[in-house]
Amino acid sequence: MVRNRAIKGIQKELSKGVQFIRSHVDITDPNLTGMRALIKLREELKDVVISSRRIL
Q1: Can you tell me the distance from the alpha carbon of 36 to that of 2, in angstroms, rounded to the nearest whole number?
Q2: C-alpha to C-alpha distance for 38 and 43, rounded to whole angstroms
Q3: Helix 2-15 vs helix 33-44: angle between axes, to the nearest 10 degrees?
């Protein structure tokens, strides 16, 4: 579910010419579902989209 929503958003951004995307993930989930999904997706799309990997 998280992955599917992220893909839809990324596709929309790419269609507008965006190449750099920063995201925010809810880490209050004890299973870190969103974070795990976006990390995996970031790896899958690393040749298409530049992502911010800075952790504060």
Answers
A1: 10
A2: 9
A3: 40
46: its two tokens? 């690393």
Length of the chain equals 56
The neighbour count for residue 35, using CB atoms within 10 Å, is 15
Q: Which residues pair with 20 in a beta bridge?
A: 50
Rounded Cα distance, 1 and 16, in Å: 23
| Token duo for residue 53 | 């990997």
Per DSSP, 29 falls in state S
* CA angle centred on 4, ends 21 and 34, rounded to 5°: 70
pLDDT tens by residue, 9-26: 989 998 998 878 888 888
pTM of structure? 0.72
